[in-house]
Amino acid sequence: MADALLAARGQDPPPQPVGKNWVKFNSQRAQCEDPAVIAAWFKLVAETRQTYGVLDQDIYNFNKTRFAIGVAATSKVVTSSDRVGRAVTIQPGNREWVTAIECINASGWCLPLFVILSGKAHQSSWYQGLPLNWTVAVSDNGWTTDQLGVEWVKHFNQHTAARTAGVYRLLVLDGHSSHATPEFDQYCADNKIITLCMPPHTSHLLQPLDVRPLKRAYGREVEELARQGVYHVDKIDFLAAYTRIRPIVFTQQNIQAGFQATGLVPPCPDCVLSSLTVARTPSPPQTTTDNNAAAQAAEQTETPHTVAEIQQQVRYLQERLQQQPESPTSVAIRQLAKSAQLAMQSAAILAEENRKLRAENQRQQQKHSQQR
């Protein structure tokens, strides 16, 4: 049905079919991409900064990510044209988990790594060639725990207290249980660390520290090891690879760009709010061709027959009305346009259902005729 609605838009070229998980993949994120929710977040940040006098250089964001230390990145492989079947690359195969907790500052620098390995005790071999200011912790499965969450905030305080320009530090975080404990909160209060938790399922919009480049870079390292004949990646290999990729990912430019893109430093809610229309509306991005088509559609007297044609005329009218203050006419135009789009989408749904019913009816008739 979703593919039928896409086809009803009359796009040229036709859009790609939706994936099998398209409904649930972004449903929670879409529900939280409400301008009111995002605006409330930026209001909270502004009020907190004003109340405690937090300076730009005292704003931090931390994020954690888990690595299956023997899994390579997804990549394209060049193979012989006469190969039968799908080509794959060899994976070292160790799926032991490691958790890396990273923290960045709005000025463009990052804290030393806090890494959690699976195990019961520390091994001296882990520390060979490792930066002296990195912290290595252990847990049964390589995941973080409430206690390790407290250990991390102590690590944070150790490396940021002396660099505080004002009085308070602002730490932006997500809602994971390991940093929502009374011990975590009390330590922050005792050390003038203000924590702000982002709204649920909004990290893709509001989190300055994006861990995806880290995971991609590490995956490429594992893939290269496999090509060199290393078929078992252990903790020592992980730490060595992570030491190589970290300075490449966490450059001053990349870190500052993360804070800027999420509207935190410099403060700019519109950096995020202006993108919500695209994120919430299933319409394709507007192009120069669309603009020209919109003007042509408005000048013609033909009645729109597809959702795309309606959208073209609506964009044309909105451009004309933007130069004027909000009026009952502009509001009515938007309402009429939305109503027309809903009507066409409903018609597309009915047409698709009708097509399926006719096909089934024809199949039943053929079945009965064969039985006679």
From TrEMBL:
Residues 95-235 form the DDE-1 domain. GO terms for molecular function: DNA binding. InterPro entries: CenT-Element_Derived, DDE_SF_endonuclease_dom. One of its GO terms (cellular component) is nucleus. This is DDE-1 domain-containing protein. It comes from Alternaria alternata.
